[in-house]
């Protein structure tokens, strides 16, 4: 069931929050042995919250738009009572979180029920969904493939139908990549739109939080529940909430849509090109718009990420280097060695690039670009062949997402259900125009072009299919 | 024969108080090489003296 259907059934007493919660806990018990999406299942807390909602309904009180909807969060969100591990071994020694992250509190204020915390790449420095401490989260359409990172457990849990909504973070693509690989919808909102308070950071300049879902309506419901200013996050906007759920069905007439050219049309496997072509055909888009210096933007995002990440983890690199995933440690140590003027230049270039891209948005409302260059690679796969050239997988998964998050543009990743594996397309809008990207995503869903395919990699008894 | 970045890795490692084990060196060197190539792309782009960084701090 979708989140919208669960909330409607719970509000009209056709289904209790308890039943919805128990169903999610049963699905997790049946399927997570294969998917490895969850690192913590908060069953006791979930049952207490569900009972609270059912009691409120029985007492005739109004309940929120997510009443009884089970959801889960990437394990970098603070969950009261759990140490916020952020995919690491080291953070397990932290004190249990005293208070939930702002976004969890807002989801629960709207009636949603937290059922657990989700696997992720260590410290979010990852595009694969693999984790040396917890094992990889697995792709729900083929468990021998990657879920995508770093919000791999979020992609796996929603793609595998364990929960209708999950939350994740996106610094360079970590919502859009798992959405693409797992065949689901993901929203990376405008930088500063959603509060990051009480979530474990990676790159403060680029960190965003956002929802995953199996339909655009559910994505919008979660997003609306989480909007609004928060003084606990210095980068969070003071703009009031701008709800989008009522706007999804608006006609696209008058919207100017273009295909991102150049950098976004190179280094693509045929599946990625096919997915973009399907979206373009459905929207009758032919105009190609060059995004200036996109490859350089990706390089600058890389520099800012590796250096801010190194700064964040410097003390842990000094005192507990053996407790890191060695691949993450060696990247962070290298990041600590980048000369400071180059980082300052990357931040100056960022402002230049932002101005150029904002100019584009005076003549276009939406840009279409691939979310990933490829479908989900095999777990452990180190290289792929593209145009006869062998390229490293990890470094290339985010080439099309990085130039977009670099300047905080809102993006909906929409799943195109190709066979045998789905792949995502980015619907990109101007800052603070999430509603525009969501309208286009909704139209693609209505036209049957974008859809979250049913998981084929897991059976109810928890064994692998095929 | 020492690799080109080894002296630099040792010096910056010392300056930052970062322990660096020999076994890690090839991976750190490879990552540094990629990161500096990325940084070079940024470095080569001409920006005016008046260019402001994109910080989020507001007083």
Name the features.
heterodimer; A: 466 residues; alpha/beta; Amidase signature (AS) enzymes; two-stranded antiparallel sheet; 14 helices; 15% strand; B: 59 residues; mainly alpha; 2 helices
Task: Characterise the protein shown here.
The complex is a heterodimer of chains A (466) and B (59). Chain A is of the alpha/beta class. Chain A has a single domain, classed as Amidase signature (AS) enzymes, CATH 3.90.1300.10. Chain A has helices at residues 3-11, 17-35, 43-58, 102-109, 152-159, 176-182, 216-226, 270-283, 294-319, 326-335, 340-360, 393-396, 402-405, 434-446, and strands spanning 38-41, 70-74, 113-118, 138-139, 142-146, 165-170, 185-188, 208-213, 257-260, 288-289, 366-370, 383-386, 389-392, 411-416, 423-429. Chain A has an eleven-stranded mixed sheet with strand order 1-3-2-6-8-7-14-15-11-9-10, sandwiched between helices. In chain A, strands 4-5 form a two-stranded antiparallel sheet. In chain A, helix 4 (102-109) links the parallel strand 2 (70-74) and strand 3. In chain A, helix 2 (17-35) runs antiparallel to helix 3. The longest helix of chain A has 26 residues, at 294-319. Mean pLDDT of chain A is 96; it is low at 460-466. Chain B is mainly α and 59 residues long. Helix content of chain B is 51%, strand content 0%. The longest helix of chain B is centred in the middle third of the chain and has 19 residues, at 25-43. Chain B is elongated, with a radius of gyration of 16 Å. The mean pLDDT of chain B is 91. The interface between A and B is large, with 43 and 33 residues. Chain B: Pfam families: AtzG-like. Chain B: InterPro entries: AtzG-like (IPR025148). Chain B: This is DUF4089 domain-containing protein. Chain A: Residues 131-144 have a biased composition (Basic and acidic residues). Chain A: Residues 19-435 form the Amidase domain.
């Amino acid at each position: 069931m979708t989140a919208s259907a669960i909330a409607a059934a719970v509000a009209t007493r056709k289904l209790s929050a308890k039943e919805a919660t128990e169903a999610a806990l049963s699905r997790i018990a049946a399927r997570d042995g294969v998917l490895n999406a969850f690192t913590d299942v908060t069953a006791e807390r979930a049952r207490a919250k569900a009972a609270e909602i059912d009691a409120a309904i029985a007492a005739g009180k109004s309940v929120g738009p997510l009443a009884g909807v089970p959801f889960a969060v990437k394990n970098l969100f603070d969950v009261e009572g759990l140490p916020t591990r952020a995919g690491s071994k080291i953070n397990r020694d932290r004190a249990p979180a005293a208070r939930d992250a702002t976004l969890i509190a807002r989801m629960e204020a709207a009636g949603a029920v937290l059922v657990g915390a989700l696997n992720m790449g260590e410290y979010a420095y990852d595009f694969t969904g693999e984790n040396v401490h917890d094992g990889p989260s697995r792709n729900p359409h083929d468990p021998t493939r990657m879920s995508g990172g770093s919000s791999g457990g979020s992609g796996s849990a929603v793609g595998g139908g364990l929960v209708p909504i999950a939350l994740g973070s996106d610094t360079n693509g970590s919502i859009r990549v798992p959405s693409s690989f797992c065949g689901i919808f993901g929203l990376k909102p405008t930088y500063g739109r959603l509060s990051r308070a009480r979530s474990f950071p990676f790159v403060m300049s680029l960190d965003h939080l956002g929802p995953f879902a199996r339909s655009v309506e559910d994505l919008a419901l979660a997003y609306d529940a989480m909007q609004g200013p928060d003084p606990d996050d210095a980068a969070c906007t003071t703009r009031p909430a701008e709800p989008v759920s009522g706007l999804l069905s608006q006609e696209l007439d008058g919207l100017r849509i273009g295909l991102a050219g150049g950098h976004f049309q190179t280094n693509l496997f045929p599946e990625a090109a096919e997915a973009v072509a399907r979206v373009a055909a459905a929207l009758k888009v032919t105009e190609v718009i060059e995004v200036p210096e996109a490859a350089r933007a990706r390089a600058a995002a890389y520099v800012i990420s590796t250096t801010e990440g190194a700064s964040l983890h410097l003390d842990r690199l000094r005192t507990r280097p053996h407790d890191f995933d060695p691949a993450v440690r060696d990247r962070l140590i290298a990041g600590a060695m980048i000369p400071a003027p180059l980082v300052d230049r990357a931040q100056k270039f960022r402002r230049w690039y932002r101005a150029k891209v904002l100019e584009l948005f005076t003549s276009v409302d939406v840009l279409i670009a691939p979310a990933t260059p490829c479908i989900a690679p095999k777990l452990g796969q180190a290289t792929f062949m593209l145009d006869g050239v062998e390229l490293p997988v990890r470094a290339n998964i985010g080439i099309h997402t990085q130039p977009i998050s670099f300047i905080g543009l809102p993006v909906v990743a929409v799943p195109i259900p190709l066979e045998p594996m789905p792949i995502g397309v980015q619907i990109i809008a101007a800052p603070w125009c999430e509603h525009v990207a969501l309208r286009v995503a909704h139209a693609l869903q209505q036209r049957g072009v974008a859809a979250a395919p049913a998981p084929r990699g897991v059976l109810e008894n928890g064994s692998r299919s095929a | 024969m020492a690799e080109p970045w080894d002296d630099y890795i040792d010096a910056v490692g010392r300056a930052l108080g970062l322990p660096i084990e020999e076994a890690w060196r090839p991976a750190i060197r490879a990552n540094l090489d990629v990161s500096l190539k990325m940084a070079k792309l940024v470095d080569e782009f001409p920006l005016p003296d008046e260019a402001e960084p994109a910080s989020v701090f507001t007083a």
